[in-house]
Specification:
By secondary structure, this protein is an alpha/beta fold. The protein is built from eleven helices and 18 strands. The protein has one domain: Metallo-dependent phosphatases (Purple Acid Phosphatase, chain A, domain 2). The strands form three sheets. Strands 1, 2, 3, 4, 13, 14, 15, 16, 17 and 18 form a ten-stranded mixed sheet that branches. The longest helix is centred in the first third of the chain and has 22 residues. The termini are far apart.
Length: 417
């Protein structure tokens, strides 16, 4: 670049940033107040949560009252006002099949608890995880049939690899949304093959190809990952590589689960990566999985306009499978931790009341952020692509169930009551 280019580049960036802030009226995403704003025409609001395990001690309750977990009015309001609600289905809906791979915990749910997804307003669930194949292809087949019966979209598993890699496609307010899902945990026997049922493995070339194809089919692309290690609050290097790969290939939001605890969020280029949303409804008692987060994003066809983090209490010794929004000091405590975890990725989270507001580039205006990014790329050398391996995580020692509740037996076998 010549000397004139070096002089003009900072001016260009300054003008773009200044214009973005002036247009938004607030550098913190343009949010009008803590809690954000309703999505306008041509915009959608998506709420994302982590793991859903609906069996064990919770199963008999859900068979009688599918709406039981959604008693907290704040969570109910979040879900009711969302255009889409996403989560990770951590166990198959089936009473068929045999244990597919011997391991410490094998999960499944009675198909009769599936209405709990409808009661919560869930529109999509990921099937790409380390439990959906616990009882083999028959249980996976039943799960897909149950989801189809209830009108819940899914991705990340199928009768073969082609189906497992296929995105779920949804439409809201004139926007077409594609969602992909991948599993980067053990056991390897759960991976789908050309003629073998199973989950979509997180493979570099597959991810890039799938996201690029999805971007050609939809206005917005979102990607779900089951990854990392249990109770690990700092993302592994491969998580960051996979997350950034998705954004580079055309995704707008990446969200993860499996650690059973929350991890930080990263603003990367024009996209958002939430490395782990922890648990949401998980039918176990554990003192090490006491709190978690809900991610709420507002998007239009240009990308993410607003992103909020809502801290929740999931300590079942206290809430008995009814997640509750944290308030006051407890909310601030968890949000300060999210601030610290996210700062490692040069991402700022501003605490507004009981909500964390992610500061997006361009003041929540993706088109301005793209101009800034383009200007920066002209003035800096390109970074070499770091292509990670596709090795999975080490097998977990346990699966988020924790110790027994006093006076009750441990959850073993199929995880059913």
């Amino acid at each position: 670049m010549n000397r004139r280019g070096f002089i003009l580049l900072p001016i260009l960036i300054l003008l773009i940033i200044t214009g973005a802030i002036a247009d938004s009226g607030n550098p913190a995403l343009g949010a009008e107040a803590a809690g954000g704003q309703e999505a306008a025409a041509g915009e959608i609001t998506v709420v994302m949560v982590g793991d859903l395990y609906l069996s064990s001690w919770l199963e008999p309750i859900l068979l009688k009252n599918p709406a039981y977990p959604y008693a907290d009015p704040g969570i109910r309001e979040l879900f009711d006002h969302a255009d889409l609600v996403f989560g990770n289905l951590e166990a198959p809906f089936s009473q068929r099949g045999e244990v597919y791979v011997e391991k410490k915990y094998t999960f499944r749910c009675h198909p009769g608890v599936a209405p709990a997804l409808i009661a919560g307003g869930f529109d999509f669930v990921s099937l790409a995880n380390n439990h959906i194949m616990d009882f083999g292809p028959e249980a996976l087949e039943d799960t897909i049939a149950v989801l189809q019966e209830h009108g819940v979209a899914y991705a990340g598993a199928g009768r073969n690899l082609e189906e497992a890699r296929r995105p779920a496609l949804m439409e809201r307010k004139g926007l077409r949304i594609a969602v992909l899902a991948y599993n980067s945990t053990f056991p390897l026997e759960f991976n789908a093959g050309s003629d073998r049922p199973g989950t979509a493995r997180g493979v570099w070339e597959h991810i890039r190809e799938d996201v690029q194809k999805a971007a050609g089919l939809a206005d917005l692309v979102m990607v779900s990952f089951h990854w990392s290690g249990e109770r690990v609050k700092v993302p592994r290097d491969y998580q960051r590589s996979f997350g950034r790969l998705c954004i580079d290939a055309g995704a707008h939001v990446v969200f993860g689960h499996h650690p059973h605890v929350h991890q930080g969020v990263e603003v990367y280029k024009n996209g958002l990566i939430a490395y782990s949303l922890g648990n949401f409804i998980f039918a176990g008692y554990s003192s090490s999985t006491r709190d978690s987060i809900i991610l709420k994003v507002r998007l239009d066809r240009k990308g993410v306009r607003e992103a909020e983090i809502h801290p929740i209490n999931i300590n079942n010794y206290e809430v008995e499978f009814q997640p509750q929004l944290f308030k006051g000091e407890e909310a601030s405590r968890l949000l300060r931790e999210i601030q610290e975890l996210s700062a490692a990725f040069n991402t700022r989270v501003e605490i507004k009341g009981d909500v964390g507001v992610v500061l997006l580039p361009g003041g929540g205006r993706p088109e301005q952020a793209a101009l800034v990014q383009g200007a920066l790329e002209q003035g800096t050398p390109e970074e070499g692509e770091v292509k990670p391996g596709t090795s999975p995580e080490e097998p977990p020692a346990e699966d988020g169930l924790g110790k027994d509740k006093p006076g009750q037996e441990a959850v073993e076998g199929n995880g059913s009551a």
